[in-house]
Amino acid sequence: MVDGDRRSRVLGLLIGSGDNPLCASRLCEVCAQVTGMSGAGIMLMSGDVPRGSLCTTDKVSDLIEQLQFLLGEGPCVDAYHQDWPVLEPDLANPQSSRWPAFAGQAAEAGVRAVFGFPLQVGSVRLGALNLYRDRPGPLTDDQHADALVLSDLVAQSVLVLQATAQPGALAAELEEGADLHFTVHQASGMVSVQLGVSVGQALIRLRAYAFSNGIPLSEVAESVITRTLRFAATGDGSYN
User: Fold this and answer.
1) How much is the pTM?
2) Which of 78, 102, 75, 76 is closest to 89 using CA atoms?
3) pLDDT exceeds 70 at position 235
4) Which of 53, 168, 182, 229 could connect to 65 by a Cys-Cys bridge, CB 3.0–4.6 Å?
5) What is the pLDDT of residues 103-153, one digit of tens each?
6) What pLDDT digit, counting tens, does each position of 10-69 carry?
7) What is the Cα–Cα distance from 143 to 148, expressed in whole angstroms?
8) Residue 81 Cα distances to 30, 43, 161, angstroms
9) How far apart are the C-alpha atoms of 186 and 44, rounded to whole Å?
């Protein structure tokens, strides 16, 4: 099947749903349906910073997105940074060791295969499409080709929707149902100022503090925002 036929088939599924074809949740549903996966999710990123999940299809795909945001590793993160599909056909028995924190927790939740595809339009990078399956095995050639078409359509749909938003705001169609961790992003900005580092580095510091103290990242962020926790550089160049 040529790409034009694949694209027409996907657009037919979106338009024929009777709902808003550019609705984020509908985009996720079609991504899973077309590729025959157990579930799908769309992660938005900006620079080095994951912004959170635009949509997911089920509890497992939601967990996948949450883990990647909280841990800063996984197929979507790598696909975004490498600008190339990242494919893991057997998460429980990978050929190469990667994602030490993400892999075990995702596998325990029932994820046996996971695939990340970058979302990009021209030079604009938006995030990544995540597909997962509850049994191991590689994508077929058709599934891989379908995923490439889907990632392109998702990226263009996000740009179309966002074009109607006010500067600095997220389009209502994108924000509905999204989990974009606004508290964590606000805290990252504050820690960035406190330490004189980039927002990406500040987010790493927040994750490290949460992990080392056994505290949820959202609670650490809330403590920063309420100013009960402050990060400061020490004399030896480290941070506390």
Assistant:
1) 0.78
2) 75
3) no
4) 53
5) 999 999 999 999 999 999 988 888 999 999 999 999 999 999 999 999 999
6) 877 777 655 555 677 788 899 999 999 999 999 988 776 667 788 899 999 989 998 888
7) 9
8) 25, 13, 23
9) 16
Q: Which CATH architecture best describes the domain 3-175?
A: 2-Layer Sandwich (3.30)
Determine the pLDDT at residue 201. 80
- Judge contact between 150 and 142, C-beta under 8 A: no
Reported as a single tens digit per residue, the pLDDT across 67-115 is 888 888 999 999 999 999 999 999 999 888 899 989 999 999 999 999 9
In this structure, the number of other CB atoms found within 10 A of the CB of residue 226 comes to 9
Look-up of token digits 């740009």:
159
b/e 77-110 (16+ beta carbons within 10 angstroms → b): bbbbeeeebbbbbebeeeeeeebeebbebbbebb
Output the CA angle 133-140-76, nearest 5 degrees. 50
Distances (CA, A) of 72 to 27, 41, 80, 163: 24, 16, 12, 28
**Where are the chain's structural domains?**
3-175, 182-225
H or E, element range at 138 = none
Percentage of residues in the chain having pLDDT higher than 70: 84
User: How far, in Å, CA of 224 to CA of 230, rounded?
Assistant: 6
